[in-house]
Specification:
With 195 residues, this protein is an all-beta fold. It has no helices and 16 strands. It starts with 8 loop residues before the first strand and ends in an 11-residue tail after the last strand. It holds the Pfam family DUF1349.
Length: 195
């Protein structure tokens, strides 16, 4: 399916941003985040998100570049139903390192991190959603895609999918997204890591 980020819709638009059909550059605002309740006890729906409407059975992917150096600096893909049901996955800086981070939220947030590779200032992330199953993968080169998460996700008539960046502890993170695409859900075997 054709997507054009110039026609996408913002949730919490930053002051500084520029979109092309398949890319986005932005500078984050301070105190931006998506989170619901777990551990910290607060709810935040203030992160930057530029998304398009899609139906079930899609794979979305994007290349992410940035200098993630402060606590909770983050950027990647988001799939959103509403403020209570969403997923964000990408890079996040925590405990002094960059990790691949996934937060799945259905009322409350569930956070996991992993490091299948450490080169996380320039990487690819993709999310496939089909028939209530979400498959999240990342790649350092766009060719080999290790699995980050396989999880259930609610089945609804449509979803919002797109690019997200947040800086809960500061502002001023420059993030570049490129090669954004949304197409039919990939059908490769779960253990086939090729593109």
């Amino acid at each position: 399916m054709d997507v054009n980020l110039k026609e996408a819709e913002w949730l919490n638009k930053p002051v500084v941003w520029e979109a092309t059909e398949t890319g986005l550059s932005l500078t984050t605002e301070a105190n931006t985040d998506f989170w619901r309740e777990t551990h910290y006890g607060f709810t935040r729906d203030s992160g930057h998100f530029l998304g398009v409407t899609v139906v079930d059975g899609f794979t979305a992917s994007v290349r992410v570049q940035g200098e993630f150096r402060s606590l909770y600096d983050q950027a990647g893909l988001m799939v959103r139903i509403d403020e209570n049901r969403w997923v964000k996955s990408g890079v996040e800086f925590t405990d002094g390192e960059r990790f691949l981070s996934t937060v799945i939220t259905d009322g409350k947030s569930d956070w996991s991190v992993s490091q299948p590779f450490k080169e996380l200032e320039d990487f690819y992330i993709r999310i496939t959603l089909k028939k209530g199953t979400m498959r999240i993968q990342a790649s350092s080169n766009g060719s080999i895609w290790p699995l980050l998460r396989l999880a259930p996700f609610p089945k609804v008539s449509h979803y919002f999918v797109g690019l997200t960046a947040c800086t809960p502890e500061r502002g001023g993170l420059d993030v570049r997204f490129s090669e954004f695409s949304v197409g039919a859900a990939i059908t490769t075997d779960l253990h086939d890591l090729s593109s």
